[in-house]
Request: fold
Amino acid sequence: MTYEVKSLNEECGLFGIWGHADAAKVTYFGLHSLQHRGQEGAGIISNNQGQLLAHRDTGLLSEVFKVPEDLDKLTGSAAIGHVRYATAGEASISNVQPFLYRFTEEQFGLCHNGNLTNAISLKKVLEGQGAIFNASSDTEILMHLIRRSHNPSFMGKVKEALNTVKGGFAYLLMTENKLIAALDPNGFRPLSIGKMKNGAWVVSSETCAFEVIGAEWVRDVKPGELVIIDDSGITFDTYTDETQLAICSMEYVYFARPDSTIHGVNVHTARKRMGAQLAREFQHEADIVVGVPNSSLSAAMGFSEASGLPNEMGLIKNQYSQRTFIQPTQELREQGVRMKLSAVSSVVKGKRVVMVDDSIVRGTTSRRIVQLLKEAGASEVHVAIGSPELKYPCFYGIDIQTRRELISANYTAEEICEIIGADSLTYLSLEGLIDSIGIETNAPNGGLCVAYFDGNFPTPLYDYEEPYLKSLKEKTSFYLEK
Amino acid sequence: MTYEVKSLNEECGLFGIWGHADAAKVTYFGLHSLQHRGQEGAGIISNNQGQLLAHRDTGLLSEVFKVPEDLDKLTGSAAIGHVRYATAGEASISNVQPFLYRFTEEQFGLCHNGNLTNAISLKKVLEGQGAIFNASSDTEILMHLIRRSHNPSFMGKVKEALNTVKGGFAYLLMTENKLIAALDPNGFRPLSIGKMKNGAWVVSSETCAFEVIGAEWVRDVKPGELVIIDDSGITFDTYTDETQLAICSMEYVYFARPDSTIHGVNVHTARKRMGAQLAREFQHEADIVVGVPNSSLSAAMGFSEASGLPNEMGLIKNQYSQRTFIQPTQELREQGVRMKLSAVSSVVKGKRVVMVDDSIVRGTTSRRIVQLLKEAGASEVHVAIGSPELKYPCFYGIDIQTRRELISANYTAEEICEIIGADSLTYLSLEGLIDSIGIETNAPNGGLCVAYFDGNFPTPLYDYEEPYLKSLKEKTSFYLEK
Amino acid sequence: MTYEVKSLNEECGLFGIWGHADAAKVTYFGLHSLQHRGQEGAGIISNNQGQLLAHRDTGLLSEVFKVPEDLDKLTGSAAIGHVRYATAGEASISNVQPFLYRFTEEQFGLCHNGNLTNAISLKKVLEGQGAIFNASSDTEILMHLIRRSHNPSFMGKVKEALNTVKGGFAYLLMTENKLIAALDPNGFRPLSIGKMKNGAWVVSSETCAFEVIGAEWVRDVKPGELVIIDDSGITFDTYTDETQLAICSMEYVYFARPDSTIHGVNVHTARKRMGAQLAREFQHEADIVVGVPNSSLSAAMGFSEASGLPNEMGLIKNQYSQRTFIQPTQELREQGVRMKLSAVSSVVKGKRVVMVDDSIVRGTTSRRIVQLLKEAGASEVHVAIGSPELKYPCFYGIDIQTRRELISANYTAEEICEIIGADSLTYLSLEGLIDSIGIETNAPNGGLCVAYFDGNFPTPLYDYEEPYLKSLKEKTSFYLEK
Amino acid sequence: MTYEVKSLNEECGLFGIWGHADAAKVTYFGLHSLQHRGQEGAGIISNNQGQLLAHRDTGLLSEVFKVPEDLDKLTGSAAIGHVRYATAGEASISNVQPFLYRFTEEQFGLCHNGNLTNAISLKKVLEGQGAIFNASSDTEILMHLIRRSHNPSFMGKVKEALNTVKGGFAYLLMTENKLIAALDPNGFRPLSIGKMKNGAWVVSSETCAFEVIGAEWVRDVKPGELVIIDDSGITFDTYTDETQLAICSMEYVYFARPDSTIHGVNVHTARKRMGAQLAREFQHEADIVVGVPNSSLSAAMGFSEASGLPNEMGLIKNQYSQRTFIQPTQELREQGVRMKLSAVSSVVKGKRVVMVDDSIVRGTTSRRIVQLLKEAGASEVHVAIGSPELKYPCFYGIDIQTRRELISANYTAEEICEIIGADSLTYLSLEGLIDSIGIETNAPNGGLCVAYFDGNFPTPLYDYEEPYLKSLKEKTSFYLEK
Reply:
């Protein structure tokens, strides 16, 4: 599975640090391990004794920080950084985070992962009061709310602002003398706290960053929590008591790196369990298991172990498949020219293949991979998906806000099986998914948001309520690209 | 394992096509699948009814062909292309292939994979006769020999030239009206013939290119063979009868893509067999198997199946680890900052790990990975290598021409085990390697060149004879970078 | 004289058009002719039936618009554009104009040439009311004032905002259905109106843009005037009656292109008259006149005609002297290596040279040119400057806001003559300057701002009042770089 | 006049130095002052105690040497450099000079200004003997001839090679221990010798480089001369006695920088004399003189002084007119959009203008400038050209090798006057040109090659003889672009 084909994208990765001589450089390496969360923009703001310094641009981290000077100029012992996934057409530099706000009397750096559900309403109200928004993203709203709050204390202003915005969010806010991290009341997005050997505190969207920089995981940020880090250490506060964990289940299924651990559950291990459970729910005869690289390799391992079927490398992903402007013509595509994935004939020829993938969004990718395997000689292709049918959009930070492109919102599993040309199609049950992840919590759905699968959103939808209800009634118009 | 650390590099990948309206574009996609064979330069020469057109530059294929025009200008129905691995300091544009030769009366395109063992002597002789060499590579020598041959026929000139050069070579020569492929008498380098659905003939260093472009494999080029493709079809000829298959065993161990098949043996399958055989030769207790991504994942699968130990994803390779100018300082490195590979604590903590890798060159990478695993909590790390000890250089196209950097030429396995901090170190036996590959042939060593392991070179070494013998006697001066 | 050495820089050039199918392209060509007014950033906003589209970046126009697509995407029949001169350290993309403001209900494009004298105070007040400034320039202030005005009509809001900002300014404001141009009450910065053959209205900082795009000059915008252009044509309004023309005299002396005409006076002709008047005030014997290319060639012509001395090409400016990172070492500089200007020995050898230049800012350039001429064999070098001594800073849009770097604020003409190594030094008298320009007006100083020469600022200085008065008392610390 | 419109281009500029610690850097500055002689490629080869180091690429010098490292790596105390003008389609990197030849036993650097008349024949003969040419330019031929010479001494080989090539050439050859400069037997191309303050010897295509680097002119290289510079100093030799000075007259008219001096004649002064003589030959009434910037400003000065008519700045060249991909559409062009040159209405309105230009090649530029002046209000435009009618091609290094594009080879002066829309057209007489330049010599035509004007070529034309004679008879097919 590749990002290009599936329109299922996380919005961003965050990293912050306080108390390290090479703060910007550590942030760079932290962001480097979060690059899978966003490839369209990156930036770092460092804090040199109250002076904030910024560097950001569109592109991959290695394209944004081209020469050592780009990083060296970001002096100071604290920093926040961001990698950005941007929806089409808005990949402009003015949306790349962290944002740097230079007021006459103070400075702030701000970055954000998630999506607000009342952004449109808030923007209108603020504009009516004279506010000017520079970027098209939601992120600025928080800064406007903080600046306009009449609460006498700065932390009071921040809490008031956090109680005004709704939806899914993890924020990092760098002030002149502290670093603040905040998470929404449902903890939709992951955010963890770590500590480096030299005592520096770090926060990161995923724990894989801690492995990379040699930090030790301390604990995950809780829903509705405020974390304040300054020269005197770390303190914890809350801005609301009405919280209930509902972490995005797709983080476990697809987004997060397998070496990350979220709420005590290692992602690779969760995926193996999903694969094993999927094997138990699977009801067909087969010879070999083939995972779609790279995201489904863990699930394929679990499927293989539970089923006893050998796990084979029947699909190869080209390591050099990034950005190219050269694309096959339609004719070449028909002749079989493909750049990213190829099937290994000598592995799959004559075999009944269980093709393990994590999810089906539009179905186009699945159809192509089934075709690849069949052309390479597979006698049967049984598609096994490590998550339930994706039927509903997400409003908390994943880039599916319309049902039109979700094949499962429009077709039954049987129809989809036929459309993608598979010999059978098995989805993991919702219970199977929840059990496989297995967070230790009393929250409903095992502490997970599974709204994409069952349509039960854990919060009111605010600005999205009406369009969502309308989309449920409306006749969809999904057509598969042939 | 990463290219940057290990100085073990193939020299180049070749692709050629005759008889397709989009010849240059198909060549682009073919080369794209061969990118792992060389990342420092790329080029294509197309043939538009006798007019040869070229585009080449340093860098990855996607950097060389930046805009569609770069490729669109290469019109015509035949083409040859090349991806280049270059030794340090010579990555200049003048060495990037294919070379285009425009004589007053005819034109040629030429590219080459391999290394000549008598290049220095031939160059001196030719210079003494007035020849001027433009590039520092060996490749031009063939063109000088062809042009100076007194043989009356063109194919006679080519054969005379091929009988003069010695060593390992696969050549593609584009003339105004045909495409010629030639392989050295030992077939040190792989070269395969395929056919597209529209009837176009293709040749490629690896069969993975055929999967990508939708071509069918026809057969591999034989040692000492000449393949001539023109508008009337394909014909086969030989320039020598003194041939004996000795294909580079490292192609199976490390270089080739797992989905390629060489002399009837699929590379992934061979690697699984190496892993399985390694498991049989392995004599320690362990809990889990962890392959070093990406090259050793197949061997780890085989080891797991044969040993019954679970195959786990204990090491994660960052998908975005290519080219960056930002490097950790020494201090950060000590704090644990690493960009390319990280160990997954939740997987390896408290476990006795079998770390499966394909080979050890200098030992630095192995030492780092062992350390990674131990820091992540592995209780024991048993290193299992899918090939024998690498003790001797190669003169046929792999970039190890000195024994100084080979740790196995300087230390015993016991010493190396201590140096890399492992709890045990197991190499695959030479017999185990040969059996695992299992080419159907009567040639010695199962049709493989295993000189890096046993020092028995299948040919005289010509210009390298004296320096090689001297290196065997000389006290080596290998020091591990601490 | 070159921009690099002299720190005397205009802040920006403006161009706008309404009613042309190729509006963005015409704007590009208009800006191209204004490139001398700013080389550090450029941008265009087009208006396609109410939808505003933007492209802007740092660098020269040809660097910002690199490929035809950059311009082609700016569809629509109206546009505004800007070339920017930026003070050091703030050459970031976020300051490049025109700014695009996308509110929920409407959009604006805004660009600005000039400098506000009450920007700091206004910013503080606005920030206190919750305003967030994105860029470090003054320009955004106007938009905040417009949006916060309680005036019921849009033009009322604009007028209120224009009456609130103080200093030197020319604004172009693109709304969804009109283009508005506004000039400060003193008309410090030039702004002209023209008409294209197809009927499209254009506004430009200089009339040279009209020559280039084939437009006819209509008239100059008046101090305190508002020009509104929409589909029904052009209308004129005012936002204040307290106006008095005080156009920047340095526009005539140095900034504007010689082919521009400002307030009825052609710049080349004015410079010739300055040169002629300078010749009349000049009291030394000499053989030839040499103008410093390119800005002083007109004055040199006038000097030559009035004095009867031949005008010679004794100094040559390298046409290719733009941006290079290769600079001579100190040692090479001493050996005479110079990249931008060279003296022609065969012209100046043994001659008493009148070196005509337009102004002396820091004196370093003058000293180098005198030295060049002497090394090339000039027997005497008499420096004749086409303007009076530059003693005071400017707060209306020219980049001299400190007296520290003005050599004439620190030394007498006699001392400067010695410092630059000249045989004599003659400045044009203030009366001579005013007469040479000769605008038809009853305003004081012939309608010119000559505050840099006499310290009499035509307006209160607001935020700059205190620092300015302090600078007059304070002992300056001017040191010539040796 | 601009390079883009006129197809009249010099082929290259040369610079060499021996004996300076910053040899490559001085070469850079020398080449910088020769940039007008070629903008399509540049390179430097330095000599560090016998080790030759190269850097070269397509583009302007500032594009080729982008970062200080590009130059810093060229260590050593001697260097040669080259700026290249390339004919269309051959602007590839492989043609950029100096060429670096690395033989097993020695190294050479070679660069060339000029054109050989027997290159095609020589290339064929050499190829028949096995020679392989890498580039499409003539330059390599000399190296092949040197390497194939049987003369026992190296200087003997060089002389033999120089006697074999025919046409116009200036060569710089860097060996491991000396720098050799050579000029053709007619001295078609300029080449001068200078000395730096530290004693280093320099050679340059033009003396303007000496002014820039602070070197003193010593003397010009003579026709048929060989200059050898090494650690023991400079020595002079000849390779032929059959010499006769015939320096390209277009160097004085158009190519060379005005501050250069060639064979004792300063270019600016020569141009002023051409202008003065042109004024004496001119037979019309007029009000003002306007030179076409930049090449005709000197001639306009001379015309003005001799005629008594005022010299005015009626045409302005945009200082920022280099490379842009944005071009006016045909419609915009008709509306008057022009990027490079504009006429100053306030200067030319109602005036009878003498428009002084240096030459007319195709006539398109002249027609446009006449039109510009008329649209700006000039009542009459009298075109005065500072050279005779350009009727014949050049084979010695200027890029006119066909008569088809020369308007004067196809039309009479009267017809051309009408075509370009002028009120009169006056060419300088051939005698006037020769007298105005005035080299002190007894050689025919005052030591000048004036073949473009009278068709009398000073040498046999070899490979060009037949096509030239054919072109004289053939009906030409010149059509002016409307």
Remarks:
- Chain A touches chain B through 69 residues (CB under 8 Å).
- Confidence is low (pLDDT under 50) at residues 1-8 of chain A.
- The longest helix of chain A spans residues 267-281.
